[in-house]
């Protein structure tokens, strides 16, 4: 630490082992980034039924011409769904949730999660991204509190706690594209 | 259908003539498998009987490339006109006839005929068409009598023409895969000891008709009907049809015979006219068949009721030591259950013979909802992933036309259908006799 650095004058020295703190932050950044990225991508997935010929052991089609229908998972923009329809309906029935805000929120939720996940993993605007992610999880928690889904609230609470911990360790951030 | 022009189409004379022909007709030209070398040329067909079932066949045929309707035949102008318009709108202008004999005289470039007339006309019509050099697809039952059905097999052999009987499940890939892959190859059911089948329907009114389209008494009498009610509701009269065991049961009892690989050796049955006052045939029946299979004795219970839908659904169920297959033409009634002690079926899931629907009781859940300690635990449930993207009759018709082209063997030729249907004729006998009937193997042969 350079004593002539003006920032050093206002930042108290960390009681943590610098290497351990850096690794701890990288673990948190990686977990939260992967969590957000995959949660976002999954909102672009769907399970569809795919028909394909029933095959013999040698790979030739069955003599009966039988077609089997197998469930398959696919990804695509056209499959985007922020929340399951049943959950959206329950939220729409909640008077304390502002319905005119719900539609724009649903339309960006998946994209925001993907962007935040990529930003965290790449080290782009890490501090701002973590804070934005915390706000997003708080907004999601509001809906679950109103629906009385305590398990979901606790689940998001753990996420939010991890984000808060990451923000506390953000000074140990390394391997980033942007400094902040 | 005049009596004088073609004596063979007069039922009494027809039956007399076939009886006299006797053994001379046996196995002359076994034309039951593959026809000629028509190749990919257009197949020109006629439909005889343009009623409800005829329209079902018509719809399926219109979806099959390379098949063209040339003629329709029905004694009721009301049906005939509607059928003619329907086919014409599909781009196939047809000639129409009230009489099969006239149609056979005038239509010289037919290859095949589909027959969907009332059961008592099946044998006369089929035999006339076979003798006219045409291949025949005839709806089940083959006839309302054993003698009529037997004559069809004899004529099939005598003429060397193809005769496919409309047990359409035999061409349904879902049934074929269930039998060939699940039961025979994978042996998922283990030793099959029992089967069960049912088809129940709610009470209903007799079929009616627009009064201004009623046939005259002369026409009705000429074609064997006592009245318009007999004509419209022929299924319930003994001289015309075979009752619910024939109409509904025939399809499912045929599946018993097909899957067990043998017809039943004994029949125990009860039934009666319990509800309807004006019907000759029974309303309801309960039957127990006993089969001698290559794996040992198996028994099947069959129930048909026309006075209650009994909660709905129709299916056939094969129960074995390692699993149970419940199958229906309606996929929603189909399921396969694995016995708790049976080996896992993962390899068959990987081969896409099955898909897991529900994995059975989770660890620690045993007994939570058990009422009786002896109750069988919930079984792992699987689905049959095979789908049929066509009308249920279309594959069977396609098989018939492919056989005409020389590219396939019939899935339900007349002699195999006879062996299957014979037990159904005898089931009605068992109900009348009120005692167990034993059937000798030679009775199934023609």
Secondary-structure map with pairings?
The complex is a heterodimer of chains A (180) and B (446).
Chain A: H1 6-10, H2 18-42, E1 45-53, E2 67-75, H3 85-92, H4 99-122, H5 126-147, H6 150-168
Antiparallel strand pairs in A: 1-2
Helix pairs in contact in A: 2-4, 2-6, 4-5, 5-6
Chain B: H1 11-21, E1 43-48, H2 52-61, E2 67-73, H3 77-89, E3 95-97, H4 100-106, E4 112-115, H5 119-131, E5 135-138, H6 146-159, E6 163-165, H7 173-185, E7 192-200, H8 217-222, H9 228-232, H10 243-260, E8 266-272, E9 284-293, E10 296-305, E11 314-320, E12 323-327, E13 335-338, H11 346-350, E14 355-358, E15 380-383, E16 386-387, H12 394-404, H13 414-433, E17 437-438
Parallel strand pairs in B: 1-2, 1-4, 2-3, 4-5, 5-6, 7-10
Antiparallel strand pairs in B: 7-11, 8-9, 8-17, 9-10, 11-12, 12-13, 13-15, 14-15
Helix pairs in contact in B: 5-6, 6-13, 10-13
Structure explained in plain terms:
- The complex is a heterodimer of chains A (180) and B (446).
- Chain A is mainly α and 180 residues long.
- Chain A has 2 domains: 14-44 and 80-172, no CATH class; 45-76, no CATH class.
- In chain A, 57% of the residues lie in helices and 10% in strands.
- Chain A has 6 helices and 2 strands.
- In chain A, helix 2 (18-42) crosses helix 4 (99-122) and helix 4 packs antiparallel against helix 5.
- The mean pLDDT of chain A is 91.
- With 446 residues, chain B is of the alpha/beta class.
- Chain B folds into 2 domains: 7-34 and 41-165, Rossmann fold, CATH 3.40.50; 171-367 and 379-383, Dihydrodipicolinate Reductase, domain 2 (2-Layer Sandwich), CATH 3.30.360.10.
- Helix content of chain B is 33%, strand content 20%.
- Chain B is built from 13 helices and 17 strands.
- Chain B has a 10-stranded mixed sheet with strand order 14-15-13-12-11-7-10-9-8-17, covered by helices on one side. In chain B, strands 3-2-1-4-5-6 form a 6-stranded parallel sheet, with helices on both faces.
- The two termini of chain B are 28 Å apart.
- The model of chain B is unreliable at 1-31 (pLDDT under 50).
- Classes of the chains: A mainly alpha (180), B alpha/beta (446).
- Strand 2 of chain A pairs antiparallel with strand 16 (386-387) of chain B.
